[in-house]
Write a structure and sequence with these properties.
Shape: globular
Oligomer: single chain
Number of strands: 23
Structural class: alpha+beta
Number of domains: 3
Length: about 425
Amino acid sequence: MADESTQMDLLRFATAGSVDDGKSTLIGRLLLDSKSIFEDQLESVESTSKSKGYDYTDLALLTDGLRSEREQGITIDVAYRYFATPTRKFIIADTPGHVQYTRNMVTGASTADLGLVLVDARQGLTEQSRRHAVILSLLRVPHLVLAVNKMDLVDFSEETYEKIHTEFTQFATKLNIPDLVVIPISALQGDNVVNRSEHMPWYAGPTLMHHLEHVHVASDRDLVDVRFPVQYVVRPKSDAYHDYRGYAGQVAGGVIKAGDEVVVLPSGMTSRVQGIDLFDKEIDQAFPPMSVTVRLEDDVDVSRGDMIARIKNAPAPSQDIDAMVCWMTNEPLRPRQKLAIKHTTRTARALVKDVQYRLDVNTLHRDQDTKEIGLNEIGRVQLRTTVPLLCDPYAQNRTTGSFILIDEATGVTVGAGMINSAS
């Protein structure tokens, strides 16, 4: 089916690196060499580069869209870029490197299939590159690429590359990184980005683009445990669809097929899938991350925030949540705080029962003496919710295992959470 293949042919990847590691230049190079930018865009960048007195075309100008970013030469907000090759479609989340923008990096990497960490070959691993790897590991990003950039400035030295490769591989053993690839590149000159480098005959691995095009991500999603959070009840009330009643949402886990016996949570009512609609046609099955409308044989009571799952494989409703939270606002997270919590399509209120520890994302040290989590910090907390949530551990399902915390007074998102366990 064409729709299935297009669903699976998308790779979301997040870039992370210290300031001046060349992330924006690398993305510009990917866009340029994969012929994903227009000639007038390139001409604009070339003329801007000349007006600034550069002796080369600054490809970073293709991505650093905010004026403040251009002036400072740094990336501040998460910039999303879209491009495609004949093999695959790509969404790039270009995340900032500064420690004070950890929350932006968490936001950009939370939906990524792959994390791309850049290091400067001259400087090797820095505290920031370790921190980025830790955050990508916490977010359970299943694939990681370490791009050793600026190899042209170390005379394409194999020894320099091997030293960084060994050091990072040893560090990665402490983290949860199932798939790690290390690639030596020069984003400025294009070595090993899209085209293979003639300057590094000692490197036998793939170019960055070849790896991005062929990394296998379909099996990263949970295709076993059916999870379908209901976003909207479809009742057209038209003559053509007089009795139509469907439940729209995005499949968060498993494969849903017509004829499956299902349970609607939290009510516990059971039924059978009558059909699955995608736009204006019926399909046989649906899987993550497809957005579909599910019809049931029985007229059971289903509303937004409910979840459809398999009868013998359903999440247990939970009000006590143990989670890692990245805090995103100036006022710290403290025990006894009351917040709104949004989990899949369900919204509730939550009380912070306890702050267990703050995690130092540079050293992995757990600071158990603190009882608050500040801006851009990550810590482990216990929450109690007013209504049961239908969740899974984040390690099992990144969609049903995550949530956001909202300040009820302002409506501002103040935290992003990853569930360890729930009861």
